Amino acid sequence: MSNKTRNSDRKTIQGTLDRLYFLKKSAPRFLFWVLLVLYFFCNLIISVASSSGAAIMIGGQPLPFYTFAGVFSSISNVCIIIVAVYYGKQGFVAALTVLFVQLPIVTMSVVMGHNLTSLPGVFINVMTVGMVILIYRNNKKIDDYQESLRMQAVTDMLTGLPNWFATTELIEELIKKKIPFADVTIDMNGFKVINDTMGFDVGNEVLIEAAKRWKAVADGGASGTIDFVSRLSGDEFSLIIREFESDEDILNSIRMYEAALKDQMDNIGYDFFLTASFGYAVFPYDCGTMDELISYSMLAMQEIKKEASSEHIRKFSKDLLKKENTLEMESKIMNALENDTVYYMLQPQYDMDHKLRGFEALARMKDDDGSFISPADFIPVAEKAGLIDRVDSAVFRKAAAYVGELIRETGSDVMLSLNVSVKHLMKKDFLVEISNLLSSSGIPAEQLELEITESIMIESVEKAMHCINEIRKMGIKIAIDDFGTGYSSLSYLNNFPAHLLKVDKAFIDKMNSSDSSKQYVAAIITLGHVMGFNVISEGVEEASQIETLREIGCDYIQGYVWGRPLPHEEAGKLVRESVKKD
Ligand code: C2E
Ligand code: MG
Ligand code: MG
């Protein structure tokens, strides 16, 4: 660390210390001089009054001037004691100096001038000297104690490095002054094993040794950048790097700290090599606040640690955040599944005469704060994390139980469409699950529909075909969801044992914008009919789209124009009304 920066770091930490040291507010400087002047003034009056024979008349009685000497002597002593109490070392020196200058003068007046009236003055002078020394010693003890408390607040006691508090102070200062810096979070690799197998004492020695080596690198200045190394907690350290010109400079500096650990740690009675993981983020390029910076560098460190490769340094990148969000979402899904809080909504589907065909069950999840999490966010994560079958099953179980009950109550012929992930469908007990679902819910098989996305025809049609045929054999309907978004070949489509083709919203959105878009949807519908499927259009939002779809021969409609996804009670009302109409 260069002298310039070491000084500036000291200033920062000193600032922190001073703020911590709120107990000791220094008394105003001008008062110091006022007290000294008052002291000398009183002594002047004492010497004039004690040698004067004059008197003043009070209440007809003459009061000699020398009787006032005692009063001024008390005032002067109070002045000198205040100076000693409130002005630390300077006050102590000043008080002793004036007292020691005065003592021989007063003593001389007693000895040489045989002036016994000054004897109490000598006595008071000696007593005051003793008192000033006592006050100083006592103040010093308190000061030393407070100083050690202050140092403890910013120092890590085990390694002697600055601690977390000092680090955050420095970061805040650098951010405030807009000075670019890299925040590096360091975590020892395998430190827990050292602690567990060799004991805490060895663990502590390792930390002390690592801190010593890193401090030597930081103080040596060989890295070419200006570095501040500190211990945050446990085996976690931090490095703040300044005055770099490129990312390469930062990396080179970190490599020096990495290399400092390379030598065997044999000086602590055990032979082993230690490595650490380094994650870093750069202010102001990666983020602008301390919280972000610390969490980003920590994230980068955790990422490189997880990889457990021979590379131990990772720079933060936005991709890591996505991963982080994915992990967070994964744990939210897990929690929702554990607590059985995944629920569903039912979106109505109608024929072209606005007669209710049925409902699509759509999975829903709420965040801890009660806010709604979109399936567009959690379904893909559930797919990747292998949790989608559990999400599907939760919706299957709950929606089928409700709609089964509704059908028994009303005798309605409404369909229940359930979205099934290809991954779920491929599971070997899928058919058992579906047949259990039919028996537990009591839904007639022909009123149950499974929606499978078009992607199945591209990725896994062969493997899935057996399962889909079995489902058909049970009497359950099959719908091809999001049709048109994948690139399935016509030959697959021709052989696919589906009943319903769901035209994706993307085509419906564009449909009325040009004649060719309209003809495209018309062609899909015709194709579906040629292959023997019914066709439903998804995401219909406008009345004009209904007209077009009617004109080009669409069979069914699902969209906000006739109904948004509803809580099940409202879907129940729709069914009861539609049964009454029939
Ligand atoms: P999807 O199966 O294509 O479902 C239709 C989506 O379009 C639903 O979104 C629905 O709310 C939305 N939608 C319907 N009409 C309109 C409209 O007029 N305008 C607009 N803007 N949107 C409309 P949601 O509920 O967000 O679901 C998104 C996707 O999540 C679903 O698309 C489906 O692929 C998946 N998903 C939902 N629930 C489940 C489930 O239980 N299991 C599986 N595997 N996937 C599910
Ligand atoms: Mg669907
Ligand atoms: Mg769809």
Write the layout of secondary structure elements.
Layout: H1 3-20, H2 29-51, E1 55-58, E2 61-64, H3 69-86, H4 88-111, H5 119-154, H6 164-176, E3 181-188, H7 191-198, H8 200-220, E4 226-233, E5 236-242, H9 247-260, E6 276-283, H10 290-307, E7 313-315, H11 318-338, E8 343-351, E9 356-366, E10 372-373, H12 375-384, H13 388-410, E11 415-419, H14 422-425, H15 430-441, E12 448-453, H16 456-459, H17 461-474, E13 477-483, H18 490-495, E14 500-503, H19 505-511, H20 515-530, E15 534-538, H21 543-551, E16 556-558, H22 568-581
Parallel strand pairs: 6-7, 9-11, 11-12, 12-13, 13-14, 14-15, 15-16
Antiparallel strand pairs: 1-2, 3-5, 3-6, 4-5, 8-9, 8-16, 9-10
Helix pairs in contact: 1-5, 1-6, 2-3, 3-4, 3-5, 4-5, 7-8, 11-12, 13-15, 13-22, 15-17, 19-20
The chain binds ligand C2E and magnesium ion (2 copies).
The site of one magnesium ion (MG) has 4 residues, from loops.
Report on the structure:
With 582 residues, this protein is α/β, with parallel strands linked by helices. It has 3 domains: 17-154, no CATH class; 164-323, Alpha-Beta Plaits; 327-581, TIM Barrel (Alpha-Beta Barrel). Helix content is 57%, strand content 16%. It has 22 helices and 16 strands. It has helices at 3-20, 29-51, 69-86, 88-111, 119-154, 164-176, 191-198, 200-220, 247-260, 290-307, 318-338, 375-384, 388-410, 422-425, 430-441, 456-459, 461-474, 490-495, 505-511, 515-530, 543-551, 568-581; strands spanning 55-58, 61-64, 181-188, 226-233, 236-242, 276-283, 313-315, 343-351, 356-366, 372-373, 415-419, 448-453, 477-483, 500-503, 534-538, 556-558. The strands form 3 sheets. The chain has an 8-stranded mixed barrel, surrounded by 5 helices. Strands 4-5-3-6-7 form a 5-stranded mixed beta sheet, with helices on both faces. α21 links the parallel β15 (534-538) and β16 (556-558). α13 runs parallel beside α15 (430-441). The radius of gyration is 43 Å and the shape is elongated. It binds ligand C2E and magnesium ion (2 copies). One magnesium ion binds next to loops.
